[in-house]
Amino acid sequence: MRSHFNRSALVRELASWLPAAVELPRQDLAERLGGWLNVADAIALHAAHQALPALAVARQRAAPKAAPDARDALERLRTTLTQAICTPPYPPTEPDHAEFAPHHQRCLDQQRRMEMGIDALRNHLRQTLAAASPSLAQLAALDAALDQMLGGREQRLLSGVPAFLKARFEHWRQAQPDAWPAHFEQDLQHALLAELDLRLQPLLGMVEALERH
Q1: What is the pLDDT of residue 64?
Q2: I want to staple 28 with a disulfide (CB 3.0 to 4.6 A). Which of 2, 54, 74, 187 is the partner?
Q3: Cβ–Cβ < 8 Å for 140, 65
Q4: 50 φ/ψ angles, rounded to the nearest 5 degrees
């Protein structure tokens, strides 16, 4: 059976700004993941997978009631980052301000804020899962392995978001010379909120696994 990635909110948002619809590659999950991994990555992933049964045996079952705390921590982080993204610049951008540089810097600052906060909570969630049960310890180990292999590629892809925003900046300045700041601010917030949602997916998966356990 062939399964296809659903477009993330970020991909849908960026694609909607393009003049023509973007056709997704017709590859299944394994084929697309294979394009992200080199030989060394594949060997490391195989070794991590082989080690999972031994990890499960070695772990002693613990029963911390950590699921509510994990969910609360995730929602606190989401709220904090959302508030930062949705806080417009002060003083407000004037229509005659033609420089993209401040908006570029704002985007980079928000991306760094997301990366730091999410990385810290992701590591904490792995530790929580590792202490909860053998099966959740396996999940934590697999997440760590995948993060090490795919994290760099993800960061390179997300570093392209400011380029899309710059194109949107130019679009609104030409289309709405007297009212572009509000339109661009909305697009910038939507893009960064979609990026936040994408970055939080691994953490959400671990929290849900902990809740189901």
Answers
A1: 52
A2: 2
A3: no
A4: -65, -30
Residue 82 CA from chain centroid, whole number: 13
Distance CA 112, CA 158 (A): 11
Reported pTM? 0.81
Q: In the block, which residue shows the tokens 């619809």? A: 21
Structure tokens at 202: 């691994």
- Report d(CA 193, CA 114) in Å as an integer: 10
Angle at 171 between CA 166 and CA 175, to 5 degrees: 155
Q: What are the domain boundaries of the chain?
A: 9-212
Q: Which residues of the chain have pLDDT under 50?
A: 1-5, 22, 29, 57-58, 60, 62-63
Q: What is the DSSP string of the chain?
A: ----PPPPHHHHHHHHTSSSPPPPP---HHHHHHTT--HHHHHHHHHHHHHHHHHHHHSPP-----HHHHHHHHHHHHHHHHHHHTS--SSPPPTT----HHHHHHHHHHHHHHHHHHHHHHHHHHHHHHHH-HHHHHHHHHHHHHHHHHHHHHHHHHTTHHHHHHHHHHHHHHH-TTTHHHHHHHHHHHHHHHHHHHHHHHHHHHHHHHHH-
| Residue type for position 48 | A
